[in-house]
Automatic annotation (TrEMBL):
Residues 485-691 form the Peptidase M13 C-terminal domain. The keyword Iron-sulfur does not apply. Residues 52-433 form the Peptidase M13 N-terminal domain. CDD domains: M13. This is M13 family metallopeptidase. Its cofactor is Zn(2+).
């Protein structure tokens, strides 16, 4: 996981509907000293006029969609996005205090406080203009031939941590031996969101490409180039990126780890790009002694070598100037920042206005000093009791999966044994890491925002590269504690739930068990199921890429997965664009598996506490079973802009929220029973899908 510092500031613009659901600019916000409380099941978020058997998503989320139009500074708005903003406001209060205080701060508090203060200092940033670009542009201008490119690229990769600079290079676990950390060379070089952005021939894609070229030209003009020169250079960049896109794997192909596993030695790496000196590049980034590499896309590197051979040096300089400017624009004066926003957020994703500075600065502190900021968050917002309650639910969901695997009538005892071994080996990481990251070598200066970003990139890049050839640190996290998200890592074989996602309304200790098990229980089950989705199932208990399935069981699995592919391929994302169900398959399998496991764990909890079961008791007019399903659905309430939906249809492995709810319940006989739906109604599917 690499960080592009200034790009991280920009990505805050596009992080967390009906197209008409847009809101005017929000009133001036203030830092929060405590979290606003939203219940885990919110009756006001429902639409009681909707029939749950016809459109359950509308029934569970209709009120939320009506009452939560998309803020003008967002591409989409969701329950997750709203909680993330609540977390941000809470962190804002912490950071504003630390940025103003000079005394009584620890070393880590000094870093995050000074970083935030420098990011908020717009007057100094404006005064520097495009000044932070000069050292990079001087280096690029001194490039005499492509033979000098390796050393220059090494400098740029360290300072900018950006795969847009031709390719990416970093560390990761060896697919064949998960205990080893080796060097990875990965495809990159693009400015648009996906390789398909360059290749699709529909009118909308062509329009976006034309506007992208215009944006590149506008950026070159800001750099002082004449309009004619800027246009020529923009077209040249577009041609180079299109060539790289054609040589890149699709996102669906990238879901197959075998297509990304190509180990080579130093000679094999050099043979892919004869004119590019890998010894020079590796020596410059401090990795000159490496002898083992995984090249994720060999065909891409061959195409890249051909481009370097046939392009003149002026083309290379033009390309590099663009990508450095693209990366750094959000850290520069407002003219660069605004131009970057106008294309990447407004044009590409439909965002109406720039996020307030505080949001973007909080996001960037979290990106570059996330575990330092996480310590502050955890000490105030994540109690030991909450951690224990989360672990208790996690263990219950794991027990449910153990029983589920044993009950499968399509899986042989041999494969079941391997599956149980893998399940038993999964490590549960809840809340925050056991050991906090050491940022002591990262220098943060109070009045140097762009410099802080660059030094943060270099710190993270060097930290990542230093792992190559070292023993694997299984305690490392890939998300920061305040993050409103969770993940499963197939090579680590662990599930990770940051403290930020274990807050109301997603996990509500004040709420009854039914919606909590529907929501957080379902999410825990979702991450567990990723260990056995179409991608995760290819890794064994130790995290190695290894086929542990019998041929018959693998075929049975693929037939069940095909049912989900066929189901989701029928759903429309926006306009006439359908879900790319081969891209979303892993998440769709995990959604369904998670809901089933959450249900099983909840029923087990109720059986152990019969005084709480009371199956006929109504609360908010809902039975406990109905509350389970509504609680599960309400995490997915969202509104999304059509522009953003088009991008997500290409790039997002998750289905839209509506189908992450309706697409599940049609496969759940328990839902049909809970809401007394009749055969033939839209939420009752004649042929149900189920993998796990």
């Amino acid at each position: 996981m690499s960080l592009a510092g200034a790009a991280a500031l920009a990505s805050a613009q596009t992080s967390p509907a009906p197209a008409s659901a847009s809101a005017p600019a929000a009133k001036a916000e203030r830092p929060a000293s405590e979290f606003p409380y939203t219940p885990g099941l919110d009756p006001s978020a429902m639409d009681r006029s909707a029939d749950p058997c016809v459109d359950f998503y509308q029934f569970a989320c209709g009120g939320w969609m009506k009452n939560n139009p998309i803020p003008a500074d967002q591409a989409r708005w969701s329950v997750y996005g709203k909680l993330a903003q609540d977390n941000q406001r809470f962190l804002w209060g912490i950071l504003e205090d630390l940025s103003k205080r000079q005394d009584g701060r620890s070393a880590t508090q000094q870093k995050i406080g000074d970083y935030f203060g420098a990011c908020m200092d717009e007057r100094t940033i404006e005064a520097r203009g495009a000044g932070p670009l000069k050292p990079y542009f001087d280096e690029i201008a001194s490039l005499k031939s492509n033979k000098d490119l390796p050393r220059l690229l090494a400098h740029l990769h360290l300072a900018l941590a950006d795969q847009g600079l031709f390719f990416g290079f970093g560390s990761s676990q060896d697919f064949g031996d998960s205990t080893r950390v080796i060097a990875f060379a990965t495809a990159g070089g693009l400015g648009l969101p996906d390789r398909d952005s360059y290749l699709k021939e529909d009118a909308k894609s062509k329009d976006i490409r034309a506007k992208y070229v215009a944006h590149i030209a506008n950026t070159f003009k800001l750099l002082g180039d004449s309009p004619e020169q800027a246009q020529r250079q923009a077209e040249r960049v577009m041609a180079m990126e299109t060539g790289l896109a054609k040589a890149s794997l699709s996102r669906v192909d990238k879901r197959d780890p075998y297509k990304l596993f190509h180990k080579v030695d130093a000679k094999g790496l050099q043979a892919l790009t004869p004119g590019f000196s890998w010894p020079a590049y590796l020596g410059e980034i401090g990795q000159g002694k490496q002898t083992s590499f995984n090249v994720t896309e060999p065909a891409f590197f061959k195409a890249l070598a051909k481009m370097w051979k046939t392009s003149d040096i002026d083309a290379t300089r033009t390309y590099l100037r663009w990508h450095v400017a693209r990366n750094m624009s959000p850290a520069l004066a407002s003219n660069f920042d605004q131009e970057h926003f106008d294309f990447f957020s407004k044009t590409l994703r439909g965002v109406q206005q720039q996020q307030p500075r505080w949001k973007r600065c909080v996001t960037l502190v979290d990106r570059q000093l996330g575990e330092a900021l996480g310590q502050e968050f955890v000490s105030r917002a994540f109690s030991p009791a909450l951690k224990e309650k989360s672990l208790h639910m996690t263990r219950q969901v794991e027990e449910a999966m153990q029983k589920d695997i044993e009950s499968l009538d399509w899986m042989s005892p041999e494969t079941k044994k391997r599956a149980q071994e893998k399940l038993a080996a999964i490590v549960n990481k809840i809340g925050y890491p056991d050991k906090w990251r050491d940022y002591s070598s990262y220098v943060v200066k109070p009045n140097d925002f762009a410099g802080n970003v660059e030094r943060g990139n270099a710190f993270e890049t060097r930290r990542d590269l230093a792992k190559i050839g070292k023993p694997l640190d299984r305690g490392e996290w890939g998300m920061t504690p305040p993050t409103v998200n969770a993940y499963f890592n197939p090579q680590m074989n662990d599930i990770n739930f940051p403290a930020g996602v274990l807050q109301p309304p997603l996990f509500d200790p004040k709420m009854d068990d039914a919606p909590n098990y529907g929501n957080t229980g379902g999410t825990i089950g979702h991450e567990l199921t990723h260990a056995f989705d179409d991608e995760g199932r290819q890794f064994d208990a130790k995290g190695n890429l290894k086929d542990w399935w019998t041929k018959k069981d693998a075929k049975e699995y693929e037939e069940r997965a095909a049912c989900i592919v066929d189901q989701y391929a029928q759903y429309t994302v926006v306009d006439d664009i359908k879900i790319n169900s081969k891209l979303t398959l892993g998440e769709d399998i995990a959604d369904l598996g998670g809901l089933i496991l959450g249900w099983m764990a909840w029923k087990e909890e109720m059986a152990s506490m019969p005084q709480q079961a009371q199956p006929q008791q109504l609360r908010d007019g809902l039975t406990p079973e109905q509350r389970f399903f509504v609680g599960n659905a309400q995490w997915a309430c969202e509104n999304d802009r059509p522009e953003n939906l088009r991008v997500k249809a290409m790039t997002d492995p998750h289905s839209p929220g509506r189908y992450r709810v309706n697409g599940l319940v049609v496969n759940m006989p328990q839902f049909q029973q809970a809401f007394q739906c009749k055969a033939g109604q839209p939420m009752v599917k004649e042929k149900r899908c189920r993998v796990w």
